[in-house]
Amino acid sequence: MFEQVFDEEERGQVGIGTLIVFIAMVLVAAIAAGVLINTAGFLQTQAEATGEESTAQVSDRLQVVSQSGTFDETADGGEGDGQITDLEFVVAQAPGADNIDLDEVSAELIGTAGQETFRLGDEDAVGIEIFTDNDGDVVLTDNSDRATVSITLDETTFGDSGANDLGYVLEEGDRLSVTFTTSSGATTTSEIRVPSTVVEDTVRL
């Protein structure tokens, strides 16, 4: 059944050939293992980055605590019933959110005649006041932080289009959708509904 090798030289050659094959198999296995480890490490890093970005897009958002508007009876020249000339939002960090720089937050207004998007820190018509002791700091760092974001609607031009042309000056009974988007891509939408009859200068919306 087994062939006996009586020549000592042939016996040595068979042993060397087996050793060479064994070493080759070990090298191939080591290379394959290295490729698998590198690929697994890359996939793990990519998965972690994707998970962090996805989490930020969900959690790193603003929370609108309250919203109101300033009603001016003479804003339309006395020809009608007046208009909402300013919007004011009190905002905070949503639960689980990281630091939010309000200057980097963008706002999208969708009115009766169109939409306009702008960054809060780029518009003179936008005012930001944060309730902290640091002057000029507009970064929300804690869930207890609150900030006021005010948007002037009348006599204001956002981008290339006038707010008046897009229906952003609100009258009684009008509606407006405002969406805040943080730098991480998390969005918060607030619906503005002006009462059909306004009897006060400051109106909760």
Automatic annotation (TrEMBL):
Record's subcellular location: Archaeal flagellum
Pfam families per UniProt: Flagellin_arch-type
A GO cellular component annotation in the UniProt record: archaeal-type flagellum
Superkingdom of origin organism: Archaea
Record flagged with keyword Transmembrane helix: yes
Transmembrane segments: 12-37
Keyword annotations from UniProtKB, A to Z: Archaeal flagellum, Membrane, Transmembrane, Transmembrane helix
Record bears the keyword Transmembrane: yes
Its job: Flagellin is the subunit protein which polymerizes to form the filaments of archaeal flagella.
Protein family per UniProt: Belongs to the archaeal flagellin family.
Record-given protein name: Flagellin
Native source organism of the sequence: Halorubrum tibetense
Lineage, broadest ranks: Archaea, Methanobacteriati, Methanobacteriota, Stenosarchaea group, Halobacteria
